[in-house]
Design goal:
The chain is mainly α. It is about 75% helix and about 0% strand.
Amino acid sequence: MRDERLVRAGRAFEAGDVDEAASLLDSMESSSAEFLYLSARVAEARGDHQRALTLFDQVIEALPPEPARDVERRRPDLISKMKQPARAAAELERYIEHYKEALTPDEQARLRGRIAGWLLDADRTEESLGAYENALGLASTTPSEQTLRLGLAEAALHAGDTERASTILAPLAFEGQTARILRGALELIERYDLDVRLTPAQQIDRARALISHRAFGDADAALRSLPEELPAELTHEVEWLRARIAFKRRNRYEDAHALFDKIAGSSGPRATEAEFWAARSLSRLDRDKEAIAAYRTFAKNTKDKQRGLEALFLAAKLEFYLGRDEAAMVACRELVGRGGKKSASRLSPDNTRDCHFMAGIGAMRSGRLRRALVH
C-alpha cells in the first residue's frame, strides 16, 4: 500500500509547493522508485543539482520507459548547471543518438544547439562552430533556425570572425521572430562594437517586431534611437508605433488617446484607423459617452466595413453598460440584421450572440417580456 505522505508529496509538487513536498518526503524512509524519482525532482527544483543527479542515477534502471527517458533528458541540464559543460554536451549527444528515431529533425536541431552552446562554454570554439552548422542543417522552423544562427554568430565572435558574425546578426536584429533573438542580436552587436548599422526602416521593423512580443521597453528604445529627421512615411509609422506602445502598456491610456487623436487629425495613412484606437483608449479611460461618439464617427468614415461593424458593436455595448437599454437594443437589432448570409461584412458569431443577449436583457428590464423571449 502506498504511503499517503508520498501521494500528498506528489500532489504538492504538481501544485508547485516544492517546500511542502520536500517536508513530506523528509518525513519518510523509502527506497521505492517512485520515492527516489520524486525526491530527485524536488532536489532539482530546489537547485540541489548534485543530489538530483545522484538520485536519478539510483532510480533510472527501475523506471518504466517514459520516466526513464525523462531522466536521461534531464541529466545533461543538471550536469551543465554543475558547471561541467563539456560533460553535459557528451551526455546530450548520447541521448540524441539513443532516441534519434523518436526525435523530429527540429527537436534534434534544438538539442544540438544546446550541445554547441555547451561546447562554446567549454572553450571548444571550433567544435562549437561545427555543431551549430550541423544543427542548422536539421532546423525546420524559422525560430529554431534564428536561435541557432544567433549562437553561431556568438561562436564566430569567439573565433575572432567579426565579419561572419556581422553578416549573421544584422538581419536578426530586426527580423528576429522572438524578443530573445531581437535582444540577443543587438546585444552582441553592441558588446563587440560591430560595424552593423540598421537603417531607420530596419529600426522601425525591429520596434514593430518587439511590440508584437510585448517587449515595449526595447521597442521604445529602438524608436528613440532613430534620427529626428525622417521621410514622411517613416515619421507616420513611428507616431503610430508610439501610440500602440502607449495603448498596450495599459497604464498609459491618456497618452495613447492623445497620440491616436493627433494621428486621426493628420493626413497620414493611418488617420482613419487611429480614430478607432482613440475610441478604444477613451473606453479604457471610462469616458464611455465620448467613446460611443468616437466609435460612430469611425464607423461612418472607415472604408473597412468589417471594422466599422465592430466599432458600432462596441458602441452598443457601452450603451448597454450605461443602462441605455433602448439605444443598445436599437443598435443591436440593426447590427444583427445587417448583411445576409452572402454579405462579407457581418458581425462575428460571438458579437452576434452578445447582441442577442444585450437586446434580450434590455427588453426584460423595460418590461417587454415577449420581445425578450425572441432573443
